[in-house]
């Protein structure tokens, strides 16, 4: 996929079919998502410069425009025409089903509000795509990475989250967390309120979760596990907190790499299998590393290029 096609996506110049193809490709290519963000920022800056340069030339035109608006208000026939055209514009805008792509880099989070007031908190190194306006009988979005969803209830339009890896979550109105990074061994759905159906499409395995339940799909074993959990442990990342309860260090390391934009180098496989218990409450990485040494047999040394070497005491 070329930069030209990415730029056309940003400018809204692609057909619906091509638009979906480019967005799906970006969802599966983290490096290209970063390029997408850079191109989008440049395009916004370019448009702002154009607006700034043309503002002085259009000052007189704006005066005439405001005068025309006053005449429209005074003349009832013109007012009727104006309202009619406004409604046509609104209908055209609402029929716009073009896709929106939101991405985050490492050490970055974003909050997104959809047109139905659903609130989505996107975790670091993640991507979310959704239509500008929901049409039909469902509200469908695609997530790559991790996000917390607070979904506005609508019984006529179920909300469906697709992980792009064969897992779907179907809800009416509820709040839940989805963690689905391609490089991870598992995908997790943690329900806070309401009810959700988790669907593994390949085998059509369906499980229904109640509050404080988590469904974990193990990729290599092609197996779904449902368990009761303390939901705070899986949603605290929104407030900058990370909570672990006998969590394998391989999972802790991945979280820290995404949250702090660094890389760990481990000296022994024993470190990856070590189960860590602790909480990091808005700590910097140095404080976390010191906690490792205090509360576990793991030691560290800082290398070049944001690489941290982990060792384990024998």
Automatic annotation (TrEMBL):
Source organism, top-level taxon: Bacteria
Coiled-coil portions: none
Domain FecR protein residues, every copy: 102-197
InterPro entries named in the record: FecR (IPR006860), FecR_C (IPR032508), Ferrdict_sens_TM (IPR012373)
Segment forming the signal sequence: none
Matching Pfam families: FecR, FecR_C
Start and end residues of each Protein FecR C-terminal domain: 241-308
Gene3D superfamilies: 2.60.120.1440, 3.55.50.30
Name of this chain's protein: FecR domain-containing protein
Organism for this UniProt entry: Jejuia spongiicola
Lineage, opening ranks: Bacteria, Pseudomonadati, Bacteroidota, Flavobacteriia, Flavobacteriales
């Amino acid at each position: 996929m070329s930069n030209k096609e990415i730029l056309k996506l940003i400018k809204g110049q692609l057909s619906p079919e091509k638009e979906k193809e480019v967005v799906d490709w970006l969802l599966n290519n983290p490096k290209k998502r970063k390029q997408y963000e850079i191109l989008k920022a440049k395009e916004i800056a370019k448009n702002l410069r154009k607006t700034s340069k043309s503002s002085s030339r259009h000052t007189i035109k704006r005066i005439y425009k405001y005068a025309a608006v006053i005449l429209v208000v005074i003349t009832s026939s013109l007012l009727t025409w104006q309202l009619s055209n406004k409604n046509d514009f609104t209908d055209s805008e609402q029929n716009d089903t073009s896709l929106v792509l939101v991405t985050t880099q490492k050490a970055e989070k974003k909050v997104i509000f959809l047109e139905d007031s659903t609130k989505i908190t996107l975790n670091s190194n993640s991507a979310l795509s959704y239509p500008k306006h929901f049409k039909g009988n469902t509200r469908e979005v695609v997530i790559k990475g991790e996000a917390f969803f607070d979904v506005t209830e609508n019984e006529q339009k179920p909300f469906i989250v697709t992980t792009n890896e064969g897992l779907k979550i179907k809800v009416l109105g509820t709040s839940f967390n989805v963690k689905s990074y391609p490089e991870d061994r598992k995908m997790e759905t943690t329900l806070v309120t309401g009810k959700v159906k988790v669907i593994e499409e390949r085998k059509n395995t369906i499980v229904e979760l109640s509050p404080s339940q988590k469904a974990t799909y193990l990729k290599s074993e092609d197996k779904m596990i449902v368990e009761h959990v303390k939901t705070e442990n899986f949603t605290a990342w929104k407030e900058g907190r990370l909570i672990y309860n006998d969590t394998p260090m391989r999972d802790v390391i991945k979280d820290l790499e995404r949250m702090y934009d660094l890389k760990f180098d481990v000296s022994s496989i024993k470190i990856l299998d070590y189960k860590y218990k602790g909480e990091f409450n808005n700590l910097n990485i140095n404080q976390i590393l010191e906690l490792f040494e205090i509360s576990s047999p793991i030691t560290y040394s800082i290398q070049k290029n944001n690489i941290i070497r982990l060792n384990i005491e024998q």
